[in-house]
């Protein structure tokens, strides 16, 4: 086994708090050990030698035919450039703080989602919003394995199930506003899903208008929610998170990482999550709306599930996962 492998500290999924803290402590201990003189890595040397041979072959090819390599390099540059544009769109994760959340997510009238007495009314129905129609179109496109178009009387949404992408050429602020409107009574009858003609599938499209399916659905669910929870969730029953969301490509709402870290440990009611983390319920509601849209969140329905529910933990008595990790990194007792 190489020195590199010996120094690797692995944490198995699902990540548990105790295991993460133990791994960090071990890493800190290794970091404090005296460093020995590095030994030449034969695997790296071998890779470098092989890479050198590849470069020599490419140089030889260039000498034999100057024009062909230039064309190849140009094509390669164009492909890489295009992929970078799409990747930047896919990785458009944005972290919202509490101050900017209200103005970004939108406001509600007639209900205070942070008032426990109004929790029973603090829900929304995704089927009444753009979110519901997009979700249905996704399912049709994926089941048929065909490129489909969602027609709404607005700009068409094109779904590419093979690459898990969608294309919608609209301004971000327009999409946010449209996603927050209940359109079932106004545009519902105009919503149709149709196969895209083959001659239109391969048309060149603006790369900045591509989204990954998951990132798109997560985002429009946040905007439809406006801090409410989906009508499919029973506010009195615990919910759970099936696995950790890919936050590197998702809109990160306030306290999203803390909420996810708590829910992956076990089922909890939404109000208990807010109490334990000492945060506003609307942050929990919007997170669970987005997670439900991607199928990441589930509702406890069986009596056996309730029996294994995580114990009710009171807020502010235990350190959060992130603060405990920071304490370990700073050399303090967690």
Please write out the topology.
Elements: H1 3-6, H2 17-32, H3 42-64, H4 67-90, H5 98-105, E1 123-124, H6 130-144, E2 148-151, E3 157-160, E4 165-167, H7 172-179, E5 192-195, H8 198-201, E6 210-212, H9 213-225, E7 229-230, E8 239-241, H10 256-263, H11 270-277, H12 281-293, E9 297-299, H13 303-307, H14 321-329
Parallel strand pairs: 1-7
Antiparallel strand pairs: 2-3, 2-5, 3-4, 4-6, 8-9
Protein model, in words:
The protein is an alpha+beta fold and 334 residues long. It is built from 14 helices and nine strands. A five-stranded antiparallel beta sheet has the order 5-2-3-4-6. The longest helix is centred in the first third of the chain and has 24 residues. It is globular. About 18% of the residues have low confidence.
Shape: globular
Largest sheet: 5 strands, antiparallel
**Helix-strand makeup class:** alpha+beta
Helix content: 40-55%
How far apart are the termini?
33 Å
Kindly report the spatial arrangement of strands forming the biggest sheet.
5-2-3-4-6
DSSP, total strands? 9
List segments where confidence is low: pLDDT < 50 over at least 5 consecutive residues.
35-81, 87-93, 306-311
Order of helices and strands: HHHHHEHEEEHEHEHEEHHHEHH
Strand content: 5-15%
* Overall average residue pLDDT: 76
Rg value: 25 Å
